[in-house]
Amino acid sequence: GIILKRPVLGIGVILGKDDNYLVISDLHIPYHHKDSFEFLWAVYNYYQCSKILNVGDLMDHHAGSYHESEPDALSPEKEYLQTKKYCQELQEMFPEMIITEGNHDKIPKRKLKTCGLPSSMVYNYNQLYDLNDSWQWKERHSFDSKGGQPVLVPMVLNNKGRWNKRVHGDKAA
User: Fold this and answer.
1) What global pTM score does this model have?
2) pLDDT at position 80, please?
3) Which of 64, 65, 77, 164 is most open to solvent, judged by the fewest CB atoms within 10 Å of its CB?
4) Under 8 Å CB-to-CB from 90, ≥6 apart: which residues?
5) If we measure between CA atoms, which residue out of 15, 5, 24 comes closest to residue 70?
């Protein structure tokens, strides 16, 4: 599965009048970078974020993809179990999160439709992955940051492909 490992290229932060928002995108669990959770936690604390938004592709669901499969990827069962474990770990860090479903998140629903079963069989990701209901899954989500300023915080890697342990961003945006 190492071929599918990818870094988080950057994380968004919205510096709001009342709240700062951590905006997470494209983790693709369980194929996320091994330092991504530590990076998210550091950015969350550095910017004193109080709200967490995930804008899609929290999970990869590679085994169920309609595209050509990577032969070195995890088996469907191992991918599911690792996804479950990592999502529970992430929920311990961020107990409340609003998640808008990305195309990878929706793969199980799409696969069910393909074989003639209702997508409602997997309507509840929290139940499927043994997560608390404090993670809210939505098709769409709108919010008012009250004039908040966006900041892109890159995950800078060293020459060994590991996060350099620094948060690079413009806190004074």
Assistant:
1) 0.87
2) 93
3) 77
4) 27, 29, 37
5) 5
Dist. CA 35–CA 57, nearest whole Å:
17
Contacts of 105 (CB under 8 A, 6+ apart): 56, 57, 58, 59, 61, 99, 125
Contact 100, 140 (CB under 8 A): yes
pLDDT tens profile 105-147: 888 888 888 889 888 887 788 998 999 999 999 989 998 888 9
**Is residue 28 over pLDDT 70?**
yes
The pair phi, psi for residue 7, each rounded to 5°, is: -80, 160
**CA–CA separation, 46 vs 49, rounded Å?**
8
Which residue type is seen at 121?
M
How far is the CA of 95 from the CAs of 55, 79, 84, 87, 118, in angstroms? 16, 23, 15, 11, 30
